[in-house]
Amino acid sequence: MTVHAVRDLPVPSEAVYAAFTDPETIRRWWGPEGFTCPVAEMDVREGGASLLGMRAPAEYGGGDMYTLWSYTAVVPPHRLEYVLRFADADGRHAEPPEGVPDGVPHVVTFEPDGAGGTRLTITEYGYTVAAARDGSQAGLDQCLDKLERALVSR
């Protein structure tokens, strides 16, 4: 099962690409509504890996969750491919939630729309349980809402 999202953003593809690669920018939008991103250690290159941390709001227990993005393709400012794995604060392997594969392939594309904006497309692959897929879709949609606000308010 896949998660798929498309957003048309009113900023150039270079700015949207930077939002996925620049630590300060990614901290502004990574995580669902109410979550913060206290950790964004970015090593965006083929063979590199980025460690991202999400902090839940108090009403969800306030805990931290980490993911490691291992890059398989980096084509600035057009495409990123990476495998997301759950990790601990040091980037070591952690068990994924039920229904989430131990390694979720992601493909992210940044297509100029011809009018100065960008069509952002994200596809995640391999979910084995509908609830896990649906939860990831909801979280991604909320992240992209925050991304759009961050890019437009720059």
Question: Could you give me the name of the CATH homologous superfamily?
Answer: START domain
Main beta sheet: 7 strands, antiparallel
Which CATH architecture is right?
Answer: 2-Layer Sandwich
Portion of residues in beta strands equals 35-45%
Tally of distinct domains = 1
What is the rounded Rg? 15 Å
Outline type: globular
Write the H/E string, N to C. Answer: EHHEEEEEEH
For the biggest β-sheet, the strand order reads 1-7-6-5-4-3-2
How many helix segments? 3
Question: What integer is the average pLDDT?
Answer: 97
Terminal CA distance: 35 Å
Blueprint of the fold:
Layout: E1 3-9, H1 13-19, H2 23-27, E2 36-41, E3 49-55, E4 64-75, E5 79-87, E6 104-112, E7 118-124, H3 130-152
Antiparallel strand pairs: 1-7, 2-3, 3-4, 4-5, 5-6, 6-7
What's this entry about, in short?
With 154 residues, the chain is α+β, with helices and mostly antiparallel strands. Helices cover 23% and strands 37% of the residues.
